[in-house]
Amino acid sequence: SVERPLSIDSAGQMVASILSKKVAAGATHLVLDIPIGPTAKVRSMPEAQRLRRLFEYVARRMGLSLDVVITDGRQPVGNGVGPVLEARDVMRVLQNDPRAPDDLRQKALRLAGRLIECDPDVRGGDGYAIARDILDSGRALARMNAIIAAQGSTGFDHNHPALGVLTLDVVAPASGVVAGVDNYQIARVARLAGAPKVPGAGVDLMHKLGDTVAAGDLLYRVHASYPADLEFARHACERDSGYRLGTADEVPRVFVEF
Q1: What are the chain's domains?
Q2: Which of 28, 29, 127, 137 could form a disulfide with 113 if both were Cys (CB 3.0 to 4.6 A apart)?
Q3: Cβ partners under 8 Å of residue 47, min gap 6
Q4: Which band of pLDDT confidence, cut at 50, 70 and 90, is reported for residue 10?
Q5: Three-class SS state of 154
Q6: 56 contacts: CB under 8 Å, gap ≥ 6
Q7: Pairing of strands 65-72, 29-36
């Protein structure tokens, strides 16, 4: 027999899986991010609020201090989808590189700020500024480098990441505004290209929601290390690129905490 995961988790299974791992690791305080969007796991604010209440109920019973934050999940955060591409984005944020994706930087600062505010000596609202100072001063990078060294550094260079040498460029079929990015389809293309098993495989996004593009502009580049993987990804992109072009008024709006 052949078994295939259906990628369907009930809310109870999700809560049990996430919180049990945190408690087993010895965590006492947790900031939990629930992204919502048309193609995110959680599609609406009422659904996110129900999930938040379930997380909070279980966390109280387990003696875990929990802060649930509902965030924007309309598109992938950062520019890369795949191990090396995501590591590149993270290191650029930590090094305050001007090429760092601003959405990743802002989300990291806001979540870190919420966690910092778990300290009773930190006044509510001050966490973001403290997190920003830690990042801008280089202390966050120093801590990351220490963690990398302790785990055995492989000398990762975010300026020259070891990406799959086989590439596929997906371009805009017409002029317009990026009005939709399908999280599932982009993740599917990245998986077909070999991610995450092949570290250098994945999808490098060049345009995000609200960007104006002209016909022929590069929307994203697919990286693969094996010809068969690239062909699988190519067929998926031909059926559905994961991008929808339209007008600025068609960009979906979500009401989130940040």
Answers
A1: 11-151 (3.40.1030.10), 166-250 (3.90.1170.30)
A2: 127
A3: 36
A4: confident
A5: coil
A6: 66, 68
A7: parallel
Q: Which two tokens stand for residue 235?
A: 């067929």
Of 255, 233, 246, 238, residue with least CA distance to 81:
233
Residue entry with tokens 């559905």: 240
In tens, the pLDDT along 100-114 reads 999 999 999 999 999
Residue 161 has pLDDT above 90, yes or no: yes
Give the strand pairing for 80-81 and 65-72: unpaired
According to DSSP, residue 156 is labeled -
The single residue listed with the structure tokens 């371009």 is 171
The residues carrying an active-site annotation are: 9
Identify the helix (H) or strand (E) that includes residue 32: strand 29-36
d(CA 136, CA 29): 25
Q: ∠ CA 241-242-247 to the nearest 5 degrees?
A: 105
pTM for the model stands at: 0.90
What is the spatial distance between Cα 208 and Cα 243, in angstroms, rounded to a whole number? 9
Spatial distance between the Cα atoms of 203 and 79, rounded to a whole number of angstroms: 8
Tokens in use for 124?
Answer: 């509510």
Strand partners, 205: 220
Q: How far is CA 239 from CA 189, 227, 242, in A?
A: 11, 19, 9
